[in-house]
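Let's practice the habit of predicting before peeking. Look at the sequence and jot down your guess about where helices and strands might fall. Then scroll down.
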Amino acid sequence: MMRSYSRLLWCVLVGAAGSQAVSDAVVLAQSAPRTGSAAFGDWRDDKPGAIRLIRPDDLPKPGATPSAANVSEIVPRPASASPLVPDGFRIELFAEGLNGPREMRVAPNGDIFIAETRAGRIRLLRAADGAPKPAVNEIYADGLHQPFGIAFFPNGRDPQWVYVADTDRVVRFPYKTGDLKAATKPETVVADLPHGYGHSTRDIVFTSDNKRMLISVGSESNDAEGMGDPAGGLQTWSAKHALGADWGRETDRAGVLAFDPDGKRQGMFASGIRNCVGLAIQPATGDPYCSTNERDGLGDNLVPDYVTRVREGAFYGWPWFYIGDHWDPRHAGQRPDLKDKITVPDVLIQAHSASLGLAFYDSTAFPAQYRGDGFAAEHGSWNRAARTGYKVIRIRLRDGVPTGEYEDFVTGFVVNDSEVWGRPVGVAVAHDGALLVSEDGNGTIWRVTHR
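Done guessing? Here is the structure:
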């Protein structure tokens, strides 16, 4: 259907206005989003500039395809391999030899803080604006507990603290601009985040007014197996907890928690979000966003991952529903009281992409149409017959509101059907406006600039 439309558009415009019309038709055809069944595909369909728009009504029925196990093999980066970016952009290797670099944050002075989660440490890189490589490479802090999220507080040009979200706690270090190493041992701010089996990443952001600290905590399970029944009964539990809040092993998980900056618990900010790996604040609107991994086991194209605004008090469906009032067949008929109270995510992403780090573009080095848009790292997942993800996507916004479309921005990490060399995790905007991308397959960071 899309090919037919594009060909017709080409022919009409060629007949009408010659070569200029041909050029315009090419632009229109390339920018038209893939919708319906065309929005679903695998790594072979990925290329910079490809746009997808997946709508809730496009989703197949559960079990339309079998649930697959297709784990990728990480191989050394081939000598000639380099990620692909859209025309007009350039990508270069910025740093290598890192130990599983994951989430990244850029300090106001331009220093790049990187969580090396498996090694239990935060690394700091420093590069002059425009420099292709870092001139300084230091361990800022170590001895941490699977660190992932990093945040500077307060927001602004002169933060006083570096906060780190470990898998089981939140700590902070006193910070002065230009510090290369933590001056003291970490101070514990939140002593006991839910942790143990299951999703281990914890991201952290501060609201624009610096009054609240938001922490993402993923579910323990895939689909609430083993959660049991709430103590005292469902009615009693629901009356005392946030809308859709889980219990048992899932208590205070599958959502975003709110604290004040000193760690005093304020409550559940939003619930029913299976695994909000990446948290980010959209700078123009102040809206918090989640980059979310959804559940497995329902087929190749279910359930879509997503990037969405996180509304305070909202419930996003997990585990009983997905993408609005679609009932998960493993929980069919359960929690009818929630069916009309579910917030539908803004941007649906190909299922099993494993959407991780998220950042918004707030610089001027890229063309104006990128200002305010998001970039999300798709780590690539295993629960699909033909793999997808393994790329960085652009989340399109218009007047501060997501359009629902997403665009392939950095691709080329997949070698073949079984092998990949790169798994994107973190995205961050450098001091000079370049986009930084970390990948933990071969331990590299890449730098994207506009020519």
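How did you do? The domain at 55-450 is CATH 2.120.10.30 (Neuraminidase).
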